Model the fold of this input.
Amino acid sequence: MSRSSGKRRGRPGGEISLVTVVVVTQVVIALLTATAVYAAWLHLDGNIKAGNSIQHQHGKRIPKQDQGESTEPLNILVLGTDSRSGAGDSIDGEAGCDCSDTTILVHVSADRSSAYAVSIPRDSLVKPVACTRDHEYLDTGLVEWNQAYAAGGAACTAQEVQQDLHVYVDDYVVVDFAGFKNMVNAIGGVNVCIPFELSDPSVAHVTFEPGKSVHLDGDRALSYVRLRYVLSGSDLGRIKRQQVFVSAMTDKLLSAGTLTRPDRLYSFANALTSSITTNPEIAHVKDLVDLARQFRNIDLRHIRFVTLPNQAYDVPQSDPRWGRVQVLPGAYRLMRIVNRDQPLGVFTHGSLRAGHRPRHPSAEAKAQAAAAGVCA
Done:
């Protein structure tokens, strides 16, 4: 039952890859004996860790739905943590701050026909909320976005989304570095297009050679999505590379080479559930599987990746805001679209579509891709 309206609704467990793996795991289960099914089910269920519940100050506003519509739109907060606790996680020479290195708000439409994922830059400066008031950034009266996780975990980050961006968050999923590597290895690695050499010998000591289909195993994939000190050194470039990789990973997960391999599917499910923390309401495989059946018809062409409108602060280097990111008014227009469960509209421009690369990209798209070190 819905927490807000009493209507039954589908509830995926997290970002698109999580919804997908819950669905395809059913294929694995169908191929096993009853005893093995029960054992596998218990094992996967026991993997999932539960965090704190999200504190909602206001009820969820449900957009007007078509007659007969029985589901609600969903907003799922997906976080990648900045911990360096796992073996091989310290790939950039930094100690880490236990912050949310990656923040993605995944919106799933009420009719379950489309979804889009909004990346939020970790260096954004925003107004403090109750759980972040002791984390002011220097003398700005603001806080860095990624400090919310350090202050109070995923539930605090959800509070930040709800109060600063005015979007209701249904659930959250936190993924750690080690689990990410294992997920990539479970499906045999992922191929990405790299237009020219990406090298960071000074910090991460890693180089990626150019190629249209560069194969990345788990360790290399983690280095790729974490790589920051290349090109402009901007976190925005890293966001674009992360979007490209998640798109390619989703494509690989849904490929025949993965769907016809029960061993890969179960390994992926095991790696995923072993590496995630969710709010208690969705911390069970049964709940995820029972409700994820509704998501089988979401076409890759209807999954978009966008970045919250932002710009670097135009201030002198002596200003404490220098090198940080300002959230633009367009961000709040985008969040109104999320709240109203509407298509992206003008925000589709410059977005990335899962499993697809434009045949004739615009000059602006080419420039943005080059700045991030990805193929247009």
